[in-house]
Amino acid sequence: MRNTRVFVTAVCLLSVSGGAWMAAQKVQPASASTTYTPTSIEEMLQAVRADLQGERADIIAKNVTLTSAQAAKFWPLLEAYQKEQNVIMDEQLRGIQRYIETADNLDDAGALSLINAHFDRDAKMNALRQKWLGEFQKALDTKLAVRVMEIDRRLSMAHQLMFASKIPLIH
Fold first, then answer.
1. What is the pTM of this model?
2. Gap between the Cα atoms of 125 and 120, Å rounded
3. Domain residues for 10?
4. What does the pLDDT look like over 154-168, one tens digit per residue?
5. 103, part of any domain
6. Residue 38: how many CA atoms within 13 Å on its side-chain side?
């Protein structure tokens, strides 16, 4: 039974990553010359998170025009921002895994724990974006910094919708 849940989790999370990318880009996926297969849940979660973050950076690069001076300041900031996002994303992905593993026997406390984890994640992401908007404004003009946050937020909402669609509602 555990192997089945691990497989379902892997399929859900990996489909979320690829689906969000295709929806955001509206292009056909490129064929990869090598295929990486994660060997543990932790590796799978890290791969999904890395894929999501890589997609965000690529989409931002395609939708924000920077001077070389702006780019030199901005891209290291984005990398630092994404490292902080990773902590929140990893926590959420582990929570999804825990929920899937316990969904059949979920009690009231477990149900409250799930929804409170969603609220907490949203609050953490909001606080993180507010903090980093100020940092991005130091490297970019305000409108450009806001554009970056708009793109990041839209991608996050798309990812959250995809995650939510793959998680069964509590019974």
1. 0.71
2. 9
3. 2-27+35-166
4. 999 998 898 888 888
5. yes
6. 19
